[in-house]
Design goal:
The structure is a homodimer.
Chain A: H1 4-11, H2 15-23, H3 30-43, H4 49-56, E1 61-66, H5 80-93, E2 97-100, H6 114-121, E3 126-130, H7 137-140, E4 149-152, E5 161-166, H8 168-181, E6 187-191, H9 197-212, E7 222-224, H10 229-240, E8 248-251, H11 254-266, E9 276-281, H12 284-288, E10 294-297, H13 300-315, E11 325-327, E12 330-332
Parallel strand pairs in A: 1-2, 1-3, 3-4, 4-5, 5-11, 6-7, 6-8, 8-9, 9-10
Antiparallel strand pairs in A: 10-12
Chain B binds a DNA duplex through helix 2 and helix 4.
DNA sequence: TAGTCTGATGTAATCGGTTACATGAAACCG
DNA sequence: CGGTTTCATGTAACCGATTACATCAGACTA
């Protein structure tokens, strides 16, 4: 591969001049510039990014910390593909590449510094963290990286850290309000694991809106699931056994909502006539299963672009990290309510 | 950030010795090694990867070329998340990081060298290509990269290139055989775009198996879709208008199969009693929509791990690239047939 | 015309590692 | 005991860029 020295030699100029042609073209004469660029194209010269990074301490790379462990469930984020595409596109527009980091092999599998170390070795300009909901110490350790960090769907602040999250409470309110407007008076909910922060927020907003409408949420009408299909099915089965049974259910995740619909159908009841169901997330299935799942949608693309923007703001050198971003949630009306 | 020189100074040894501690520990004395490692931990020394890459020409990074363009559809790969997770895990196990490359800003948006240049600048040890089905010249130009390349779901060979694909023909055969075994005699198919290679293969296998069973496929019973829901709905509507209408349909993609089921239900018919439906891909919805979609599944995880393995084989330095990998497809039985 | 300014370019140090080769001490051998 | 190995370590060139500083020619100024 031809180096800058080779190119300089061929052009009869110094390496400094060649470097200037690519970095500060305005200071080199028109004539020299043309000559160098022409010769560069001819011999296929391309600057070596490792060398540039070494010299400038800027890599144009953003590290992605995403703890994908086959064996544990929970690493899976339903929107990941949309988020990744948006993130990558937004970063690409600024000339940044996205480096999906492997945990540092120098640290053991359980070492809380395994991501921090990987980040520090690679001269990345910034870091995006995709949470798997586990609040892994190795992820939380990243606050110590002296590098701009943006976490997705994870409370994460520090001197160089901020995060992006959906307006989960608002979404919960939206769901409640919608069901109330549809005339429901007895509304139950299938929530997520107690310690899951987004789930808790959704529940809070949901309860608020019900209470405000004079429809307090009975403890009996709150059943916890784990975001997966079967738990939604089980929870709904439990709710259908109540007497009187609720006429509407808010599931804190679409997969659970689908499970709930299944349970309702199995009980010989109809959606939405006997029981209305509303979900949260707007995953692909929501649009595809009959009768179509009404749901609260999160702005997946917004996660990616907001992360890129927060990062760019920090790279631009503001002293304090940007405020956390809360993305609006909106209601998608389909047949299930 | 502390450098190797700093660490060497503190330990009273030369930089070469420190370097050896991390790269060829067996040649340095037990005592010195302990001392250096201890001091390294103390001052938080970590080798700078850019410098290492510059010196060794090995970056431990694999470039990912994935042309994500918001504006065009088609960049979306239904399995991408599974593939990415598997790919990343497999690469991580070998200490390799995955660099999602932005197109080279030095090249224009339409420049066929925009990925090639990005690859060449970054000293990546290998490249994985995720196809969007468009046979973009900029993707095809990567055969010229003097770097091991593995393409997913794309015919792609060259002196350092190979590819991974599903046994699409076999999957087509599987679908046909299954329907025949279920007793169907009049079987139609909703295929993909004529120029789409996987779709064509699926059709070929499907037709073969029908013919072998003495049930030649009439032209009328082949309708093309575009892999999206609506096209499946439209195609099925068309097929239902035939007299006699087919008793079973093979859709070359699950989304189209879901569209087909919708059309069947809308026509007041039942699945599978009036018309059986089988799909291809095994996307998430397949398991979730009633009555459950029987489908031919592709080994998503296999794509990722096979890509990593082919890459590793090339990195290990075989003169010729590994043979293309064809992943087996298998039948998943659910309620729709 | 001497002095200053400006614009284009060159010189060389530097970024943080790796590694071929040199060195020197200790161990081994006949 | 001299000579050869072996082992641990040091010296210094090198990877391919960037950039502070120096240089120098020509234009401009008083």
């Amino acid at each position: 591969m031809s180096s800058i020295r080779e190119l300089a030699r061929r052009c009869g100029v110094s390496v400094a001049t060649v470097s200037r042609v690519f970095n500060t073209p305005e200071v080199v004469s028109q004539q020299t510039r043309q000559h160098v660029l022409g010769m560069a194209a001819e011999i296929g010269y391309l600057p070596n990014e490792s060398a540039r990074t070494l010299a400038t301490k800027k890599s144009n790379m953003v590290g992605l910390v995403w703890d994908t462990d086959h064996r544990r469930p929970g690493w899976r984020h339903p929107f990941l593909q949309d988020i990744l595409v948006a993130l990558k596109s937004a970063l690409s527009a600024h000339g940044l590449h996205l480096l999906m980091l492997a945990p540092d092999p120098g640290a053991g599998p359980g070492d809380p510094r395994r991501f921090l170390r990987a980040v520090q070795r690679h001269n990345v300009d910034g870091v995006v963290i995709i949470d798997n909901g586990s609040r892994d110490p190795a992820v939380l350790a990243l606050v110590d990286a002296e590098v701009p960090c943006v976490a997705l769907d994870l409370l994460f602040t520090g001197p160089t850290c901020t995060y992006i999250t959906s307006d989960n409470a608002g979404g919960g309110r939206l769901a409640a309000t919608h069901l109330i407007e549809r005339g429901h008076r007895h509304i139950a909910t299938i929530t997520g694991p107690a310690r899951n922060w987004p789930a808790a927020q959704r529940l809070t907003g949901f309860r608020e809106a019900l209470t405000a409408a004079g429809l307090p949420l009975a403890d009996d009408d709150v059943v916890a699931g784990d975001f997966y299909l079967d738990s939604g099915h089980a929870a709904m089965t439990e709710l259908l056994a109540r007497d009187p049974r609720p006429t509407a259910v808010f599931a804190a995740g679409d997969e659970m909502a689908v499970g709930a619909i299944k349970a309702i159908h199995e009980a010989g009841l109809r959606v939405p006539d006997d029981v209305a169901v509303i979900g949260f997330d707007d995953i692909e299935v929501a649009a595809l299963i009959p009768p179509g799942l009404t749901t609260v949608t999160q702005d997946k693309t917004g996660f990616g672009t907001a992360a890129a923007e927060s990062l760019m703001a920090m790279l631009a050198g503001t002293a304090t990290p940007p405020e956390p971003t809360t993305l609006p949630t909106t209601l998608i009306l389909r047949g299930s309510t």
